[in-house]
């Protein structure tokens, strides 16, 4: 705890934790921009490839399905190899399916590329892992939520800026078919550039890189045994599965909205592609502050009321999200739909932040496994929502049913409780971190 940051100094890159903080959210932003770059282009792609609503649903499912497996694997990989190596590798490999999507010639090849791009969504787990090992208990919730929120804004930025990239390509004389393909090249090129910066300027934890530390016989917080031992330990913890469900309810819905919002506004309200992109993008851009707000409120509440208030806060946020979703599904005008979307979106993003403000306290010795399983829950929720849409055949009915299911899932947050020994141990770690750092400052 002595080397973990007890404060977030946003305007500095001099310390190891703050370099990790800024580079994780930047890498996450690039990954999510690439992951969702296809979403605002779907009306064009749908028309060019002659896709049915069932095929669009399959593409949306493929975009998140692969992430489930990769998130489960990548958490233990962080424990074993360290977040620096894992993030760099993901950025480099993830560029290939993005380029593949730009070169696809029909439904099947595009579907396979979207499946491959889904692996990029696992970047979230590495982001949360890296900030969790860099920051002390008093600010780890805020650090996790802020880095995730700023990175998550890449999805909203894709909704806004990819149509503008397309418009620029068309203005330069490209046709629609080549224009959307050229727009996808931009995130594909940004990923290896980000990989270079991540490799050069970060390290695994405040003390150094995992490989060197293990060589020196130093135990690693967050993955003492490393690899699959941490995954098995996480699987045996019921709290992990409760948060798996709640994260499916908040992040799963978030991903689903990112994938269908532009098409929904075009088909249901007859907006132009540009206007639909702006409306859909506003939902994603909430992540710039709303996720951070959820983590910050969780940290502040825990400082006054103890560890378990984090679970109660999460319950309230997910219940609010569910009720807001029902409202959004019944909105009968564009203005009301946007207001409803922003309202439930605020609860959704805050709930995501509050979830990962709780994750570092579940089991410190299996952090990679815990973060990976809960992160995978978000994508399970998105896939389930995709199958729900296939079943109903209507986005509006799907949204209404999701609202009911999300509201019910809020009860899982209340089930996350801790023993007296666990709470006492976390209180001691918090006091130790603050005490050590205060003594250093004096």
Describe the structure.
It is a single chain. The chain has 19 helices and no strands. The chain is an all-alpha fold and 442 residues long. The chain has one domain: Up-down Bundle (Growth Hormone, Chain: A). It is globular and about 60 Å long. The two termini are 17 Å apart. The model has no long low-confidence stretch (mean pLDDT 92).
State the name of the first-level CATH class. Mainly Alpha
- State the share of residues found in helices, binned by percent: over 70%
- The average pLDDT score comes to 92
Total domain units = 1
SSE run? HHHHHHHHHHHHHHHHHHH
The shape is: globular
Please name the CATH architecture: Up-down Bundle
Give the biggest beta sheet.
none
CATH superfamily: MFS general substrate transporter like domains
